[in-house]
Each structure stands twice: as C-alpha cells, then as structure tokens.
C-alpha cells in the first residue's frame, strides 16, 4: 500500500513538473479565459442594444450553423493534427476547405429555393432574411476551425490564444457599431457572428503564411483515403453526440414545466464555464502532445497521466468551490427568481466535475484510431440518457427526478469513457476486443 501511495505521489509531482504541458496549457487557458470574460462582460451591453426577439433569432440561427458545421467538412478537420509530416497535414487542410466550400455551395442553393419554407418550419418567419447568410457563416466558421487546428498541429498556442481573444473583440465591436448605426435592425448579431470568425482566420494565415505549400492531387487523394475513417464514423457519431446534448432539454420541455427547463439550462450554462475555460484549451494541447508520443512509442500513457492529474486537481478545486458558494452567489448574480438553479447546480456538480476531466482526454479515441468504437459509444449514450431520465421520472414523477436520471447516466458514461481512454493510451484494447 505504501508503494502505491509513493507511486501516486511521484505521478503527481511528474504531472506538475512537466513544464511543456503546463506552459502550453496556461497559454491557451489564458487566451480562452480572456475571450470568455470579454463575452460575459459584453452581455449587459448587447442586451441593451438588441431585443429578446433578436437573441431568439440568433439562437435558432446559431443552432443551424452548429449542426451543419458538424458534418460539412467531412470531419477531416479533426485529423489535421495527426500526421507526422507537415505536408500531409496541409493536404488535410486543403481537403477540409474543398469539401466545406462544396458543401456550403449546396446549402446556398437550398437556401435560395427553400428559405421561406424552412423559416415557417422553424416557426420563425423573421429568420428567412438571415438564412441566405447561412452558407457564408458556416464557411467562415469551418475555415477558422481548419486553420486553428493547423496552428494546434504546429504548436502555435500563443497565436491560437490571440485568435480566440480577437474573435470576441471583433464580435463585440461589430455588434455594437451596427446597433449604433442601425438602431432598429437586429442583423448586427448576424454580422458579428459571421465576420468575427473571418478576421482572426485571415490574421492567422497572414502571420504564418510561410507554412503554405502546394500539395499535389495524388498526395491529397492519398491522405483522404488514409483518414477515410473520420468521415465514415465520426460524422454519424458527432451528429448523434449533438442530439444527445440536446436530449435533456427536449425531454424536460416535454415532461416537465417550462420553469424546470429554464433552471436546467441556466445550471448547465453556469457549470459548463470551467470546461469552456480550461477543458477546451487542455484538449487542444493534449491532442497534439499525446499524438506525438503515440506516433513515437505506440502509446501515450505518460501524457495521459500527466493531463489526468492536472485536470483532476483543477476539477476538485473548482467544483468544490462551486458546490459550497452556489447557494450564496446565484441569488445575488442571477436574482431571486433563479434560486431554484442552486438545487440543479448541486445535483449536477459531480457530473460536470467528471466532464472536465473526461472531455479533453476523450480525444484519445482519435489518436488510437478508435473512431468506430466512439461512434458506438455515442449511440449507447443517447439510449442510456433517454432510458435513465424516463425511468427515474416514472418512479418519482418530479422535475428534479429527470435531472437525477440525467446526472446518473452521464456520471456512468464519463466513468466508462475514462476507462476506455486510459486503456487506449496504454496501446491496449478494451477487454482485448475494442
């Protein structure tokens, strides 16, 4: 037992002594945190310039962008960090851009023909004027993601951090300027969403233009075939994953009160802040560092353990604080009408604490080439969340029982996911099969 404690202590020290990882984490985390803070501080300004209806239209529009962007590049953008050679990675950049352009062109034709029908289908007629911009917004969104992933591949973490901050600043600037020039027009939110992604993309390309190389069609085809598992398995898996993320809201709106849906949404938003501030930055660094180790050694257990320790410490500290201060802070920040959010936050704190650890490490499946298993896992996730929420609700028939069912399902899924990713990081198969 003493040997195990000594080994654990050694691993903890090693995790915090790995200066390469910590330095990279801190760069991206600082940039992400700054961008998030700018976004949060801008809310009181923008809500005084734009109506509730304008934000409603933007929310629906943003949902369309998010869903379509999941598959429009064929998921090749997720493979950009994996090749050992820069030229191979650039081929994947070009593949992603070509597929995105073709996909957005098709979407543009569809919007020209069916924008009014789609607006009626979504029960939001005001949306039809926005829909012609949909392919442009998606194209700019994907171009930013593709270039950002290539910067990650090249370990330009400072550039990535600045790009995130730049996006938040441009978004705020365009939205405020447009509202001042055209007070009765809500399209400032549309233009800010669209062009806030274009500006940092152009800047990243300009600052690292020396990396641009020409790839032959033969080389591009070779890389497209090599990473064919990404479109084959990840498109379906990621779509199912997006649906599973929306499933709790859908079930709450169907079975519970509107108040319960609002409280869950706010709790989900608040508890997700640590993952947005820390998890996304850690994942970008972990994906590159772990992939380098995996290519060299056929395993990435060292990077996995070090990242797990850093994430675990951050999770325990952050959610420990949230668990105890939420009853005091939430009524002050959100107002007395949102006091019910406290109970939801307390129920879900343990789930989000585990999510902060699991989410960055979940990309081990990509590194180990387990896209097919990941797709199966996403289907399992949808089924389990649905059954647990419905099952617990029928036992107790209260709003909070739905949340409890969701929390139990997600805690189990994150635990199972950590076991899978840990096994793959050792270069082994789960149960000798997966």
From TrEMBL:
Predominant cellular place of this UniProt entry's protein: membrane
Localization of this protein: Cell membrane
Membrane topology qualifier: Multi-pass membrane protein
Keywords assigned: Cell membrane, Membrane, Transmembrane, Transmembrane helix
Pfam families listed in its UniProt record: Polysacc_synt_3
Transmembrane segments: 21-47, 59-78, 90-114, 130-147, 159-182, 188-207, 308-334, 340-358, 379-396, 402-422
GO cellular component: plasma membrane
UniProt family annotation: Belongs to the polysaccharide synthase family.
Protein name: Membrane protein involved in the export of O-antigen and teichoic acid
Species whose genome carries this gene: Selenomonas ruminantium
